[in-house]
Amino acid sequence: MNIQIFGTKKSFDTKKAQRYFKERRIAFQFIDLKEKGMSKGELTSVIRAVGGLDAVVDPKAKDQDTVALISYLAESQKFDKLLENQQVLREPIVRNGQRATVGYVPEVWKGWE
């Protein structure tokens, strides 16, 4: 298992996800989205795994202007805008190879163990 948790240090759900894996002694890599964003390939893989671009956008993100803009852009432009503005991604994004989840979903992670 190669678990990666993408999120920010202040995100409550990201902290819960880290605690979930720590309690089960499952090694994971934490990537702080404020310091180092997701690569184009990582974001593409997550979007494919969770069923579309809209699933990764947080409607309650602080940057409401970007959230609104993304909803009006063409599909091809949405991806580029998300890649530039990763602060509007739902947290945490947890990856395990080709599988990924968005948000705190321990019921899915149980199947990965």
Description:
The protein has a domain of about 80 residues: Glutaredoxin, CATH 3.40.30.10. A hairpin with a 2-residue loop joins strand 3 and strand 4. The chain is built from 5 helices and 4 strands; from the N terminus they run E-H-E-H-H-H-E-E-H. The chain is about 40% helix and about 15% strand. The chain has a 4-stranded mixed sheet, sandwiched between helices. With about 110 residues, it is α+β, with helices and mostly antiparallel strands. The longest helix is centred in the first third of the chain and has 12 residues. The protein is globular, with a radius of gyration of 14 Å.
Low-confidence runs: none
Work out the helix count. 5
Biggest sheet features: 4 strands, mixed
Q: Tell the overall outline.
A: globular
Q: What is the CATH level 1 assignment of the domain at 3-57 and 89-112?
A: Alpha Beta
CATH architecture descriptor of the domain at 3-57 and 89-112: 3-Layer(aba) Sandwich
Give the strand content.
Answer: 15-25%
The percent range for helix content is 40-55%
Computed over alpha carbons, the radius of gyration is: 14 Å
Classify the fold: give the CATH topology of the domain at 3-57 and 89-112. Answer: Glutaredoxin
Query: Termini separation (Å)?
Result: 8 Å
Order of helices and strands: EHEHHHEEH
Q: How many β-strand runs?
A: 4
- Return the average pLDDT rounded to an integer: 91
Main sheet strand line-up: 2-1-3-4
Derived from helix and strand composition plus strand pairing, the structural class reads alpha+beta
CATH homologous superfamily classification of the domain at 3-57 and 89-112: Glutaredoxin
